[in-house]
Amino acid sequence: MEIIPNVHLITATFVNLYLIVDPDGLTLIDTGIAGADKKILKYIADLGRAPSDVRRIIITHSDGDHVGSLAALKAATGARVYANAVEAEAIAAGRASRALKPRGLERVLFGLIARLIKTAPATVDEFVTGGQVLPVLGGLRVVETFGHTPGHISLFAPSVGVLFSGDSIVSGNGKLMPSRGGNTWDMDKALEAVRVQAALGAQIVCSGHGPVVKDAALVLGMPGA
């Protein structure tokens, strides 16, 4: 689904992935669980593009539902992969970048999800840091949004007012919420990550889970957001 011109949402199982079309090629943000590569490559083909048109794959964090198809897609496309150094180390080892801390029913839920998430190790080609601007969508700024994981990044495109928040902000029932629960590495940092992103003034938030939220500046500006 095209969100705005040249920015596409691909939903694979329960994870949102984003495809950006630029004159010099395609950029994919996150890759979904193992097996999602088939849906992603079909979507690319339906746009009349080839796998080799994917020039960049940017990873927000190393959880298996975001990097499960990375190895397959890198092999299929030859794309260059970008991530934070902490997350890159975990990706290379085929694991998450922090231990989960589930409680109660979360233990059951996480156990079920773990069966779906099998991550093959993959190599990150370039480590990115906060403030770095990638040549995507008129300038895609890397925002360090640690909290959900120790090296989580978001990506902001000021030219179109779009924020790709990964799991640092998720959407549901018309609301934008910070990372929380047993898969959050540091809750204080997670809340600070939301404050940092709210200050960007994004009009559209594209999160890793839940619907895309437009008029997002109003929602993010709410007390307690």
Structural account:
By secondary structure, this protein is an alpha/beta fold. It has one domain (2-220): 4-Layer Sandwich (Metallo-beta-lactamase, Chain A). Helix content is 27%, strand content 28%. The protein is built from 7 helices and 15 strands. It has helices spanning 36-46, 64-67, 70-77, 85-93, 105-116, 187-198, 216-220; strands at residues 2-4, 7-12, 15-22, 25-29, 54-58, 80-83, 126-127, 133-134, 140-144, 153-157, 162-166, 169-172, 175-178, 204-207, 213-214. Strands 1-2-3-4-5-6-7 form a 7-stranded mixed β-sheet. A 6-stranded mixed β-sheet has the order 8-9-10-11-14-15, with no helix packed on it. Strands 12-13 form a two-stranded antiparallel ribbon. A hairpin with a 2-residue loop joins strand 1 and strand 2. The protein is globular, with a radius of gyration of 16 Å. The chain starts with a strand and ends in a 5-residue tail after the last helix.
